[in-house]
Amino acid sequence: MDGSIRLSDEYRKRLLDAYRGSGDARLARRAHVTLLLADGRTYRGIMGLLFCSSGFVSDVVQDSRRGCVAMVLREGAADCATTPFWWLQLVEWTLQRTPQDFGDFRSRWSCALLAEVLA
Q1: Distance CA 91, CA 59 (A)
Q2: What are the pLDDT digits (tens) for 74-106?
């Protein structure tokens, strides 16, 4: 299975800084796996090169595919554009109703009205 991913120049630079830096060795290893994946290495190749488990590589791949280096480097979700599940449910629930259910006279939703109701 090809576990390759694509990295922007900015993300590659952040991963290289984490890999070459004198910080946490676990984060450097996660950065190293991500960089190897971006270079087209396979799971098996990475496992043989770094002497790590398939579970470790798989965890890094899942974080990488979310498109966020902060997830790979365990920096928290500050840089990630994630939306909480409850928020998506709230938006879906709101859209199943009409603006009139919320006291407005319109029959259809506009972006501005939806944003106002959700706020």
Answers
A1: 30
A2: 665 444 555 677 888 888 899 899 999 999 998
